[in-house]
Write a structure and sequence with these properties.
CATH topology of the largest domain: Four Helix Bundle (Hemerythrin (Met), subunit A)
Number of helices: 11
Number of domains: 2
Largest sheet: 4 strands, mixed
Strand content: 5-15%
Radius of gyration: 18 Å
CATH superfamily of the largest domain: dinb family like domain
Strand order of the largest sheet: 4-3-5-6
Order of helices and strands: HHHHHHEEHHHEEEHEH
Structural class: alpha+beta
Length: 258
């Protein structure tokens, strides 16, 4: 898939979340999400901030590095990244403006270009895919908080791909070594297609619905609260540790809590 195609899917994912948040009332904007201490407004503020630094990373790497240093040196990063001084209308306006700027910046990316980010630089495709994953995952927190509806789409393939390729990272991030052996992944797409990764004869496998897999690897659901089938201890161990996003190791929700 090209950089332009991923950018188009990112915009579509943002639009899908916009349909959820646009009609929210003040009470719903203050609703607590599954992320501890975060309200619906905080999730949008977070996306707005990091969409903005993504624009800087693409268009002005030096300005991005300066913003990163400011964030790292902040005593309370939430005052910078969550926009808690904004009203709901201001949150939506800022988020939409940032999305337009990010789309314009993404249109300048070359296929093989690398973009600085928090940690190692990323290839352009991986960079935009990570933005899509973050929009979808924080969007799920909002959907859970307000009882919203956001139909699954085949854009989930981007997130599933990240989930698969970060299997090793999920262990390294914890100071562990991933168990030897491949894990086959077979997922039912929203379109009813089948997505697969790994060899047919792998000694372990994860099978089930793509939405469930994405919820687990982004730590929005415990594997036991989904329909995923884990064949082999290696597969289940991965699903218990899966973390498709950067940052320190986290465990995700306990069973039957979401």
């Amino acid at each position: 898939m090209t950089v332009a195609a991923i950018a188009e899917d990112l915009r579509a994912e943002q639009d899908a979340l916009d349909e959820v948040v646009a009609p929210l009332d003040d009470t719903q904007w203050r609703a607590s999400t599954p992320a501890p201490g975060w309200a619906t407004a905080d999730a949008i503020g977070h996306l707005t901030y990091f969409d903005g630094t993504a624009v800087l990373a693409i268009t002005d790497p030096d300005a991005f590095r300066a913003s990163m240093e400011q964030l790292v040196g902040s005593d309370d990063w939430s005052t910078i990244t969550l926009g808690r001084d904004r009203s709901p209308a201001e949150h939506v306006a800022a988020w939409r403006a940032g999305r337009i700027a990010l789309a314009a910046a993404a249109a300048t990316l070359d296929e093989g270009q690398r973009v600085p980010w928090y940690g190692p630089s990323m290839g352009a495709k991986s960079f935009l895919t990570a933005r899509l994953m973050e929009c979808w995952a924080h969007g799920q927190d909002i959907v859970d908080a307000v009882g919203g509806e956001r139909p699954a789409s085949d854009r989930l393939r981007h997130i599933a791909q990240l989930g698969v390729i970060t299997r090793g990272w999920s262990y390294v991030n914890r100071g562990l070594t991933a168990p030897e052996g491949d894990v086959r992944v077979e997922l039912r797409a929203p379109s009813a297609d089948t997505w697969t990764w790994g060899p047919d004869d792998a000694p372990a496998a994860v099978r089930g619905d793509a939405l469930d897999f994405c919820l687990v690897v982004t730590q929005r659901r415990h594997v036991d609260d989904t329909g995923l089938v884990c064949d082999g201890d290696t597969a289940r161990d991965w699903m218990l540790k899966a973390q498709a996003f950067a940052g320190g190791p986290t465990d995700g929700p306990a069973p039957r809590t979401r």
